[in-house]
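--- STAGE predict ---
source: upstream dedup step, 1 unique chain passed
mode: sequence only
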Amino acid sequence: MEAVFVYGTLKRGERNHGLVAPYLHRVLPGFVEGFRLYHLPWGPHRPYAYPGMVPGEGRVFGEVLFLRPEALSLLDALEEEGEEYKRVRVRVETEEGPLEAWAYLYLGGLEGALPLPQGVWKG
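--- STAGE serialize ---
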């Protein structure tokens, strides 16, 4: 299983969760420290709104998805890994204790982005 920390459209109930649902083993709520969350509104280069997590002071809340390994290539394509997002390892605090998981950090500019100081994004 691969643990992936998600904080936006891949969370349960959000627009892209259905893409990973067939690979999903279980879900665990959690948060990461040392990151800030932004709302990225739709626009000419963004077909719908979604969040971006960047290093910084703060806490971001989301879910750890425990997925079959073949889901990572699907997520890399969705997140345009290496272009718009970078997949990195992060420490996630959960009710079962800390764990390491993959997360996607936003690489783009933050012009027009709205900070989410509570660290929670809802589509």
